[in-house]
Design goal:
about 35% helix, 5 helices, Sulfate adenylyltransferase, single chain, alpha+beta
Amino acid sequence: MNNEHPSVLIMWENYLKSIGDDTSTTKKNYSAWHFELTQSGANALVTLVLKGTKRATASSLWSYKYDRQSIPKEGDHSVITDWNGNAKCIVKTIKVQIILYKEITEEMAQIEGEGDLSLEYWKRVHDTYFIKECMRLNKHFTDEMPVVFEEFEVVYK
C-alpha cells in the first residue's frame, strides 16, 4: 500500500475512528482499487457505488491467480478509488461466489447496478471487459470462465 494516494490512508483512518478503532490497534486491513480498465469506466462505476446503485462486482478468477492476489472474502474491506487513486468510499464484502460466467443471473446483473440493470446489458459490457482481460492473461474468454461475484455494502463515504 506504499504507492497509494494520500487520501486512501486518510479515509481509512477516518473510517476506523468512526467505528471506535484506530490504525495502531485495529485487526482490520484493506485493499485499495478502482473498477474497470479505463478512466471513464472506473469513474462512472465508483459514482454508481456512491449512489447505492452498484452493490456488486464481477471479476475473472483467472485474474486473481495471474496477479497473485487473494480472492475477496466476506468481511474484507476495500477503499474504492477513482481512476487517479483518490479515495471515494469504503466497502465491506458481504458475499462472494465463484461461478461460471454463464451462471450469472438477472438478479446478479441488477445488484451490479450498471446500465439498464438487465442481464443482456450486463453480458454486453462484461463480454467486452472479459475479452480484454483474458487477452492480458493469455486466456480465451468463454461462458465457462470462472467468475468471482462479490457483493458489498458501503460502510464509509
